[in-house]
Design brief:
cell membrane; globular; mainly alpha; L-valine transmembrane transporter activity; 19 helices; Brnchd-chn_aa_trnsp_Livcs
């Protein structure tokens, strides 16, 4: 038994963690943010890095330091029913509801859309999505060595191409960042807008789902002590987060400088493709399309596998892994054909609901020893956060839906009374109040306490 991983082992674990995190959203949202933030890029990027890099590291550390065996066990600190509910919602979000369909739509947007006549776009998108998910299902049911092969060969090639593109962007920029006028929320509150944009990567939710994989790998490398496992988990998370942070900054800069020549793209996938065409022409677009498709395929296979195995554990007397994999692929296929813009639009309310709960759960797990990991503290903090997160969910819904359902508009107005709600932090004060109530409750309930 040893205390620390070797340098080679640490690098391998960090690379694996990076591969788990880095998917479609990690490319398209920094590009979009850069194009809209313009001269306010650095403030926006600072906010984005907190949610896109800092929070994934936080949740991975939470699983390591709390010594829990996965998201379900962590969520059960609040209660068994809540643990099952939160685990299901997290896996469905990073699975068939949003993240997996987004893999197919980004691949299509970057790869095929440029060659398709607008009159047949829906048909071709459907055919591409069908082929994409047939491949995903095949490798999910018979993974063999495909994930290892992709991770060791094609993912590095993808990163090499990305590096070549970003180097061209750095040394031959299309414009000056300081001359690009910010758009929308990036004009008035770039830091907070960047913070919320980082939600779209879904990496904090993915960290809760995938953190245990890292913990188990470290244990398999003969690091057995819970404290040593936690320490090495944090180290691996820091290396992986540093690489993601560097890529995010460079991609955001590429998006911002592109506004010197290119118009604001409809979404990050289109913007990414336009930049590749500018520097490398159609050849660059073809290579980029292949690499993005392979990267998204790898991510989708991993997510289907992870979701299927998790639901088998959640429902041991339910459907088999094979059945879950088929169901998730079919569901992902149907949602993928709504298009990238629709997926982004409808994923935002769910992420606004999940992120506050993920943040508070992770922080409680890390600092649990300060309040004896008392369940009542978890319950009160989560209950108050849940209400505020629900109001965030309502506020992020499409305007047409809120206008059609009067109670939704009323709830949006209620949210406006929460401090810092306009910045997306309306849940912070309720969470602190819940924490305070929970801590006071633990003191009242202590044996021998006269206030009991």
């Amino acid at each position: 038994m040893k205390k620390n991983l070797t340098k080679q082992e640490l690098l391998s674990v960090s690379s694996m963690l990076f591969g788990l995190f880095f998917g479609a959203g990690n490319l398209i949202f920094p590009i979009s943010m850069g194009q809209m933030a313009g001269k306010h890029l650095w403030l926006a990027t600072a906010g984005f890095l907190i949610t896109g890099v800092g929070l994934p590291l936080l949740v991975v550390a939470a699983l390591g330091l709390s010594r829990k065996d996965g998201l379900l066990e962590l969520g059960c600190n609040v209660g068994r029913r809540y643990g099952v509910f939160f685990t299901m919602l997290c896996y469905l979000t990073i699975g068939p509801f949003f993240a997996i369909p987004r893999c197919a739509t980004v691949s299509y947007t970057v790869g095929m859309e440029q060659y398709v006549n607008g009159n047949h776009e829906t048909l071709f998108q459907g055919i591409f999505s069908l082929l994409f998910f047939l491949c995903v299902l095949y490798f999910s049911l018979k993974p063999g060595e495909i994930l290892t092969w992709i991770g060791k060969i094609l993912n590095p090639l993808f990163l090499l191409l990305l590096a070549l593109l970003l180097i061209r962007c750095m040394f031959s920029p299309m414009g000056k960042i300081t001359e690009v006028i910010p758009i929308g929320g990036y004009a008035s509150q770039p830091f907070f807008q960047g913070f919320l944009e980082g939600y779209n990567t879904m990496d904090a939710i993915a960290g809760l789902a995938f953190g245990i994989i890292v913990v188990n790998v470290i244990r398999s490398l003969d690091v057995k002590s819970a404290g040593d496992v936690a320490k090495n988990t944090v180290k691996a998370g820091m290396f992986s987060s540093a690489l993601m942070g560097i890529i995010y900054v460079c991609v955001a800069m590429a998006g911002a400088t592109s506004r010197g020549i290119l118009p604001l793209a409809e979404n990050g996938g289109i913007g990414f493709l336009q930049i590749a065409h500018h520097y490398y022409g159609k050849t660059g677009g073809l290579i980029l399309a292949g690499m993005v498709t392979v990267a998204c395929l790898k991510t989708a296979i991993g997510l289907i596998t992870s979701c299927g195995e998790t639901f088998v554990k959640l429902f041991p007397n339910g459907p088999s892994y094979r059945t879950w994999a088929i169901l998730f692929c079919v569901g992902s296929f149907l949602i993928a054909n709504l298009g990238l813009n629709a997926i982004i639009t409808y994923s935002l309310p769910v992420l606004m609901f999940l992120y506050p709960l993920a943040i508070t759960l992770s922080l409680l797990a890390i600092f649990g020893k300060w309040f004896g990991n008392a369940k009542v503290v978890y319950q009160w903090t989560t209950a108050f956060t849940l209400v505020a997160a629900g109001l965030d969910f309502v506020t992020a819904l499409p305007e047409a839906l809120k206008e059609a359902v009067s109670i939704l508009k009323m709830l949006e107005n209620v949210r406006g009374y929460l401090p810092m709600a306009e910045y997306g932090f309306g849940w912070v004060i309720p969470a602190l109040l819940g924490l305070s109530v929970g801590c006071i409750s633990t003191r009242i309930r202590k044996p021998g306490n006269k206030s009991r």
